Amino acid sequence: MLVLSAIKNVKEDIKENLLDKFGEDAEFKFCHGIDEAKDFLPEAEVFITYGEDLDDAFVKSAKKLKWIMVLSAGMDMMPFEQIDKQGILVTNSRGIHAGPMAEYAISMLLQVARQTKALIEHEEKHLWDRRVKMTEISGSTLVVVGTGAIGQEVARLAKAFKIKTIGLSKTGKMKPHFDETFPVDQLYDILPRADRVVAVLPSTPETEYLLKAEAFEQMLDDAVFLNMGRGDLVATEVILEAVRSGQIAHAVLDVFEQEPLPETSPLWDEPSITVTPHLSGISPQYMYRGFELFEKNMAVYLSGKEDFINKIDTKRGY
Amino acid sequence: MLVLSAIKNVKEDIKENLLDKFGEDAEFKFCHGIDEAKDFLPEAEVFITYGEDLDDAFVKSAKKLKWIMVLSAGMDMMPFEQIDKQGILVTNSRGIHAGPMAEYAISMLLQVARQTKALIEHEEKHLWDRRVKMTEISGSTLVVVGTGAIGQEVARLAKAFKIKTIGLSKTGKMKPHFDETFPVDQLYDILPRADRVVAVLPSTPETEYLLKAEAFEQMLDDAVFLNMGRGDLVATEVILEAVRSGQIAHAVLDVFEQEPLPETSPLWDEPSITVTPHLSGISPQYMYRGFELFEKNMAVYLSGKEDFINKIDTKRGY
């Protein structure tokens, strides 16, 4: 059987490890992207991809394909109808972003609380000023909108800082590391309790523009809002208005309605908004963790069992 | 009995709480600093101070004084000989810095790992650049030099980030939240294992200039060194040389041989050194926590018991 990878720049130790573990059962072909990989698709039984390079024609050409391992969590560009038609198994890498994204969230909340921008400015000016008004994140209340793997990891770290954690999700079902959870339709009742709000919701029709101006009106004046889920959770103008009118103290944004964020966007220069270029999930460990997941699923695949990690429903696409 | 406080700007709710709890047993006098408080010292049985305003004459004048509560951990400026002569009990606020200092340490380690300075610079330039080379702090190894209350709190938070924690102290005795502990004389054997080194040692003759050039030679090229203990742990030139020669990747300094750090110090402009103005222990909660300690000790004092929190040996001064 041929295991075909279209992942660019796979590290040598990852390749060696896979050959070491599965070299007797499978032949591996590591290609530098789909242009190089497409010629081998008709022979591949397993295909490893970031999920952005497949179309109907490629899938149709993959006559022997039984399993697509997607080395990311975003599945928006996968041609699921054709994949489903051919009965191909799909697994993805949901969960491996949780670690770096939770680190990002805590890092940014600390940065705002401890006035990092002011401290760096003072450093540049050689200014010894101990009166910078810092707060602690310890002892505060954090509302996490989205209680999946990422939200839970944010909550787990927050608990270490003795932060009270409240989770909002569609069902409001209790999840690990949360002190309380509620259905997201109770949003307006919960937001007034939050010192900080972290949004990690994926983009679905239900979450699109979920946070409207009224949501920010409910938040505390000194609340900090952080969005690292999807950019269409809240309209740019709504956030701008919320910080400019003092409804909240600060917004940290890693995702935007339009990405890359246009150079002319007013978000860049707004003093109470921190912009980062959709990097919360980036990690030097990413490829290792993705292939580690592949390795586990490959063992399941070879054993003929069915208990795959992150198996995708190809009819629903998630 | 008179309880005299020289602490400036004591919050009204703190005063009310103390009167509420101890108003029947004691009279409270809250003064705005020693200049206002000194006239009442001869009548005071209990004196609350930051520990920087007393001299021999003041102590001699305090004929009825039985207990000095120091609302800080630094005791360098206390006239202990005279205090000891008069048999006055001294307690301090050791431990209440642990929370904010540990937050500071984690915040700064995240800042360096996640390239916050570069991200802020890009934001100022409206530059969407996702190639900034970030690392995670999760999964790394942290050496904490000093395993007291502060070091333990740093280790506790680090463990939440799945960081391996190694503690160094005089005795090397095992302490909570450390995976391993060693006597500080094994420093040179331990340092090569550290991705990050956090120093929280107090200033004693034994720790003065403990970290010499050879210590930095032992560290990893990509190690980050953070000092929030005392400035005389390491000479300025040694740190400068260590980062300039690439022996370590970055130094975060909150304490210095000379404070305030002179405007002309080369530390300010060194790209691989982050300077903060001795603020790791500053917290808006500080006064509350200090008076909370006082409250507990006041209950002990009134009960005639001896189990004071943070009782100081007035012969040794710590």
Automatic annotation (TrEMBL), chains A, B:
D-isomer specific 2-hydroxyacid dehydrogenase NAD-binding domain span: 106-280
InterPro entries registered for this protein in UniProt: D-isomer_DH_NAD-bd, NAD(P)-bd_dom_sf
Superkingdom of the source species: Bacteria
UniProt keyword Electron transport present: no
Keyword annotations: NAD, Oxidoreductase
The UniProt record lists the keyword NAD: yes
Protein name, as recorded: D-2-hydroxyacid dehydrogenase
Organism this protein belongs to: Thalassobacillus hwangdonensis
